[in-house]
Specification:
Number of helices: 11
Shape: elongated
Distance between the termini: 43 Å
Order of helices and strands: HEHEHEHEEHEHEHEHEHEHEEH
Largest sheet: 6 strands, parallel
Radius of gyration: 24 Å
Bound molecules: beta-D-galactofuranose, zinc ion
Length: 326
């Protein structure tokens, strides 16, 4: 039977060839062309975000995806956007590394009549109309969840020493999460930030700066909380603190981490991370629904936030872990 099908397939294929009409698949020109600029590949969160984007913008779904990894350099993002303008793509999607420096290139995209969707972090531009939509998260609210956990964890009159490990400087995630902590510390005289450092959202950088800090201390300080602005920073901090004999967890140095990727949830279940503040990277479907609505001529909301929560060890069940795709 299979042989017969193979023979028929050959005839059908030849028929298409000799009659000159193309095989019945999506025509190249029917595809919606998306020019996408991704920040980099700095963290588990970022890898999941990239996967979420590439999983929806497929030929099967009617898209041709032009994808560029900017390797954490804004100039690479700007260069990619300029290439997309030259190539006259239908939409430009940007996961911006930082908030500033976008006015000129987004004006060029606007003048070229190409809608721009900003995903994840925000851009700080003088003319908001240069951007059609922002799909992302409220980073300040994420920080407020971490602060609420601290207020619940420590008695109001207890003096606590905090090490603050910030994310990539100038990124919305760093700005929002930092602001929530610094405002809480201003409002609580018992809370002391004994050291603030830039971990750049990576494990390697955080391990390096944490070791540098501890090596520079004449007397190792008591550290009640390490406020890590993403999971990969927490992993680096845990290793460095362990090398200096710090006890991690309840009754010792408590780690706060943002993102709630799988590895962090596992650490949380073991008690190595005390609270995981969720930051949802699975933004692809929301961005795709934005673009398909625009293709239908519908207006889209300018700001679209994803729902996010937080987890402590009691929340980390096998069902929860199995239910998460990142
Ligand atoms: C947050 C995102 C941050 C993550 C980090 O939405 O921008 O960048 O928290 C990632 O893990 O590197
Ligand atoms: Zn988030």
């Amino acid at each position: 039977m299979r042989k017969l099908i193979a023979v028929i397939e050959v005839f059908v294929f030849l028929a298409f060839i000799f009659t000159g009409c193309a095989a019945p698949d999506t025509q190249e020109e029917d595809l919606i062309v998306i020019g996408m600029s991704q920040t980099g590949a700095e963290s588990d969160w970022r890898a999941a975000n990239t996967e979420s984007m590439q999983a929806v913008f497929t030929e099967k779904n009617g898209y041709r995806l032009l994808y560029d990894d900017a390797r954490q350099q804004q100039e690479n993002q700007i260069a990619a956007i300029r290439r997309y303008i030259q190539e006259k793509v239908d939409y430009i999607v940007v996961m911006p590394i930082s908030e500033s420096g976008w006015d000129a290139v987004l004006q060029e995209a606007y003048d070229a009549g190409i809608p721009v969707i900003i995903v994840d972090r925000m851009v700080d531009i003088s003319d908001e109309s240069l951007v059609t939509a922002h799909v992302g998260a409220n980073f300040y609210a994420e920080g407020e969840r971490a602060v609420a956990w601290m207020e619940n964890e420590f008695p109001a009159d207890q003096e606590i020493n905090i090490v603050h490990i910030q994310g990539t400087q100038g990124s919305s995630a760093q700005i929002g999460r930092t602001q929530a902590l610094t405002e809480a510390v201003e409002g609580n005289p018992q809370w002391n930030i004994i050291c603030s450092m830039d971990g750049d959202f990576t494990q390697a950088k955080t391990y390096e700066v944490m070791k540098e800090y501890l090596a520079g201390c004449e007397v190792l300080p008591e550290i009640d909380v390490v406020y890590c602005e993403n999971d990969n920073e927490a992993f680096g901090a845990i290793i460095a603190l362990g090398e200096y004999g710090y006890r991690i967890g309840e009754g010792g140095t408590q780690i706060i981490a943002f993102d709630a990727t799988k590895q962090a949830l596992l650490y949380c279940r073991e008690g190595k991370i005390s609270v995981c503040i969720e930051c949802n990277p699975m933004l692809g479907p929301l961005v795709e629904s934005c673009i398909s609505a625009m293709e239908r001529g519908e207006k889209v909301d300018r700001y679209q936030y994803v729902d996010e929560g937080y987890f402590t060890s009691v929340d980390i069940t096998d069902e929860l872990l199995d239910s998460r795709s990142y």
